[in-house]
C-alpha cells in the first residue's frame, strides 16, 4: 500500500509534490488549499506589473518546459496559467481540496500517523504530511500608529483592490521592495500624485533582454534545443556570477558597479540619487531587478519621502517632522511574515512537542526539510532554502525528489524522524557558510528573524543543495 500523503498548499511547491506522486503512480494524496484556487503567490499577487524577475525558461519545472513564454519575465497571469496547465496535464485536480484551510496536524504515536484538521472541523489520518506553504504567503501590515484612522482606501500589495480606480488619486505607498518596484511605475503613470515612503534604499540591477521579439519566440517554439540552452545559460550565469556577489566572492564589486551605473543612468537629479543610494553591502537585502522603477521615481508627480513616518492620520501620512502629506489611497507594500514558517498551523509532534515552540529561537530544519521530533513531516521551501540569486523552483524540485526518496524508506521501516545529531551537524555547517554571506551584514531584511538570525536563506550554491539532497541518508534518521 502506498503511503497516504497530506500536502498543504497548492503553489509551486505543493503542486510539484503532487505531480511527482502522480508520476510515480501514487494517488493516495490530498492537496489542501485554503484559497479558492491554486497558484500560491502567483494567485495572490495580482498587483499591476506583477511578474517574475527570474527568467521563466528557468523559473518553471524542469519536467514541464514551456516554449511559448511571451516574455523573458512573464507577467503573473501567464505564470498562473502555466501552473493551471500543469495541474491539468498531470492529473492533480481530483486531489485538490480548495477553500480548505489546514488548522492543525498532530502526530498520533499510537497509530504512527498524522491527524490533519481543517477549518471546517474535519479530521483525517495521513501517513505523511508535506508542507508547501512557502515563506511569503501571509501579508505583513506594519505597526504604525493611526492606521485604523485612515479615511481613504488602504490595502496590502498582495491583496490588491482592483475595484479601486487609482486614476487621478493621491496615493501613498509604504515600502520599496521588489513588489513595490514592480507596481510603482504602473501607479505613477495614472495617479494624480504618488508619495513613496522609503525607509531603506535598495540595490537595483537592470533586467536584461526583457522582451522577446517575434523571431526569438518562434525560434524557442520550434527549436527546442534553443530553449533548453537558454535555461542552462541563465542557470550558469546566476550560479557563477550572481551567487559569488552574495558571499563576498569575485563578482561582488562587479554587480555593485552595475547597480550604481543603473542608478546613475536612470536618475540624474543628485538629491534623488543620494536618497536612492544604499548604505549597506549589495545582496544584504533582496536585490531588486527592474528597469522601470527608477524612471518612475523621477516623474514630476512622484515624491520619494525619506522622513520617517510618525503616524497615519485620517487624511494621509504624518512624518516625524510633523508634516502631513495628504493621501486618499494607502498601499502597504510591506512584505510578508516570512520568518513565521507554517504559522498559524498548529503542528504537534512526538510527546506533544509544538513546532512553534521548538522554533521559538528561529525556524530550522535538517536540509530545510525535516525536524527532529516530527516524524514523517517534510517541508518544501522550508527554513534556509530560500535563495537570493536563482530559481526557487530548482530548490523545490530538489526537495520533492528527496521526499520521494523517503517514501519507500518509511514504508519499509516505519515513520522516519531525523536524529538530533544530524540536525546539529547541519546547523554547524549552515552557520559556518552563513558567516560568509552578505545577509549577515548590518541591514534588516525578510531573511532574518527579530533576533537577527538568518532563518530563510541557503548560503551555498544551488548545485551543492541539489547534491546533498540527492537521496536520504538512512543514518541521519531513526525509524519506527
Ligand atoms: P519586502 O522586500 O519585505 O519589502 C517590504 C518593504 O516595506 C521594505 O521596503 C520595508 O522597508 C518596508 N517597510 C516594512 N515595514 C515598514 C514600516 N513600518 N515603515 C516603513 N516601511 C516599512 O516585501 P516585498 O516587496 O513584497 O517582497 C518580498 C519578496 O517577495 C521579495 O524580496 C522577493 O523575494 C519576492 N518577490 C519576488 C518578485 C519576483 O519578481 N520574483 C516580485 C515581488 C516579490 P525596510 O527595507 O526599511 O525594512
From TrEMBL:
It is an enzyme of class 1 (oxidoreductase). One of its GO terms (molecular function) is monooxygenase activity. The keyword Flavoprotein applies. The keyword Transport does not apply. Keywords: FAD, Flavoprotein, Monooxygenase, Oxidoreductase. Its EC number is 1.14.13.-. Belongs to the FAD-binding monooxygenase family. This is Flavin-containing monooxygenase.
